[in-house]
Design goal:
This protein is of the alpha/beta class. The protein contains 17 helices and 9 strands. The longest helix is centred in the C-terminal third of the chain and has 26 residues. The N and C termini lie far apart (about 55 Å).
Length: about 375
Amino acid sequence: MDTIKEIIDPWEFKEVKNYEKSMKDFGISDFSKYTKKLKNAPIEIRRGLVIGHKDFNKIDECISKKKKFAILTGLMPSGKFHFGHMSVINQVIYYQKLGAKIFLLSADIEAQLTRNLSTEETKKIAIEEYLLNFIALGLSKKNFEFYFQSEGPKRSKEYNNLSKLASAKTTFNEVKNIYGDISPEKLTSALIQVADILYPQLENYKITLTPVGWDQINHASFSRDIASRMNFFLPCFTFHKLLPGLQGIKTKMSSSDPSSHIALTDSEKEVENKIKKYAFSGGQPNLKEHKEKGGNTETDISFQYLKLLFEPDDKKLNKIKEDYESGKLLTGELKQITIEKINSFLKQHQEKREKAKKELDKFIQ
């Protein structure tokens, strides 16, 4: 039996070999009871993309008793905004509707340190690729604060010292144990992330939640360890599976690889080409075998996108699943259903995105 803990590099990580084992290794609690409890939750929560948590019971209490809580989330301004990013912001918007204060930061310092981008590039990407799409997806100006890491929150001088003070609450041995071999610039990025995650507490929001992908587990562990030594409340986290890239369920969407993702600014033709050319099929090698054996919905990317993002109706999804697994529905037909669903969504979204340009200044004041 393999007892070796999986190494997770938050800057380069691409695949989780075993989510169940990873949850045990990192002491992550199962999220399933909240999946059923949360009312009108987005599809990402309802369909099990979110699978783990740290202290979500505190958030659940805030929601049920209408106590104040905050969401701290960040964007990495390094490339195209795609479906993987959307799956996070949909959760953030959901909690905002439940009354959470949203603290959104642009990780422009991290992008400059680890992606070799300029200040001008990071700010342009943060606003045009991310913030515009966030607004179009439903992010509200009410109960909202936005800042760039390079500038810090406008009202908080304490934030600027948090990462420096945090550095005194760790050791090289701990950092190496959490991150493995790490460069100075990545350590600096990790310490700034700790400051970001703890910042809402400086604004008197003691209960905070940060929804993250599985590749960010190390940052969650590091921030909670340091919070406990700096007399902060332990920040809460939810962890979701990595939304698979087009090439298969064991791949990850990458902003730098257009063949791995569908961006929210892609045209109808681009969507059609990407699904037909790159979307991994769970179908059989030929038509005869497919009709006899059926397709595999667990590995079929078109079906997974319908399940996790684009088909909210459970009955319709189950019918597609039954037809595909029985061989009645062919791979090409399943891909076409997915293409139409995605393009219908993107047509509406891109119209909202144009309207969001008029609202942009209100979000970055």
